Amino acid sequence: MRSFIVLASVALWITTALVVIVTLVVGQTIPGAVLAFETRDSGQAVYITDVNRGHFVQLAQLPDPAELSQWIWSPDGLHIGVVTQRGDTSIIGVMDLDGRHAQQLAEFPEFRICTDIPTIVWSPDSRRIAITLDSGDYREISVIEVATGELHELADQLTRTVSPMWSPDSTHLAFQTSRDGNSEIHVADVVSGQLYNLTDNVAFDSSPTWSPDGIHLAFQTSRDGNNEIYVADVVSGQLRNLTDNTAFDGSPAWSPDGTRLAFQTNRDGNNEIYVADVGDGALHNLTNSLDFDSNPTWSPDGSHIAFLSEHDGTRGLYALDVGTGNPRHLFDVGAGVKVPIWSPDGSRIALVSLRDGARGLYVIDVITGETRQWTDQNLSLDNLPSWSADGNWVALISTHTESSAVFTVFVDAGALGNYFSSVGQISNLAWLSQRTARRS
Q1: Are 205 and 181 in contact (CB under 8 A)?
Q2: pLDDT tens digit string along 335-394?
Q3: Region label for 120, one of left (φ > 0), alpha (ψ between -120 and 50) or beta (otherwise)
Q4: What's the maximum distance between 2 C-alpha atoms anywhere in the chain?
Q5: Contact criterion met (CB below 8 Å) for 332 and 315
Q6: Do residues 85 and 70 lie in contact, with contact meaning Cβ atoms separated by under 8 Å?
Q7: C-alpha pair distances (Å), 302 with each of 7, 265, 323, 350, 424
Q8: Which of 4, 64, 217, 259 has the most CB atoms lying inside 10 A of its own CB?
């Protein structure tokens, strides 16, 4: 490991890394009301907005446009993790959402921010931050305890490393790396510091996905001469070939209760969506058609799977009842669709599509099939729509030639809500947890 410096000087970090523009105080609780995002034009700044009140407030900005930083909001919506790069040194800090209690947690000389993956990733319980930094020759992963500033060095000499993924209980990290000469999946116990190679095979292993209970990891592997989906018991290290077929199997998606995995496969001569029972390994062909079926996405309650299907040359969005196996056509999506996004209550699906030559945000009612559309030719097809926690709002980034914008849609009213435009890039769009804010 390279050397690092842990600093507790609150004043130093505030005066040299951040300038707090306004102080925010927590107002009444309105679920899913606060949206946060980062802008880059003359510098980097963080904004939040109460979508019900319709005003944007600048929380903080980095004074030097030449400095690079990443801002990540904690899952509980109460803190912001910040990594700032000055020269060849990266500085990690955290601050409250109201702009107070900013503190520097650690400084890493000769390490730089990763530009292809998030440098900092919050644990689901918002108590820890995983950090991936780049020396130019290799990468290192460490974990910081936010409350105490204690730092745990987990892995070094990493190459071609994909951003670490926290287990749902915040006790383990899984990540993909080529440190052993080929792509493997490693798991680190952040409590004990133990690190082990979970896959340990000369084949290409990738795309680790935690089960909702954190006991298993699903991953893709070519170890059997073709692409298969394996499931690993994280505690025992036992591996099991769940798909076990000579065809291509990929895109594993856990059911919300963790008992099943949906995946796409061409074992029947065309692309189908199957579901595997993780307990007994039983497989079920859900789509069973001659069309090209892909992109399975579970509804929040696990009763339905949304998927895309090519039928008679037209790409459509379907919702399949897992219990009956009956699919329903909801919408002809056109081109450009990445992933259908379920609303928190599972009643609607949002997606961005290039349909009939017009880029637009579409929201489809799963029961009635009613569709609402908001067209914007500058919508980026790479930016996925984001639902508020109460399911009333959808937020999205619109990318123009020389600027970007954030807009929100109040779905039930069918009206365009707040609109924020910036000369520079807008990123890190996130709904915060049941908080509103106002100027003090």
Answers
A1: no
A2: 667 688 999 999 999 988 877 677 788 899 998 888 888 877 666 666 788 898 888 888
A3: beta
A4: 65
A5: yes
A6: no
A7: 46, 20, 10, 17, 39
A8: 217
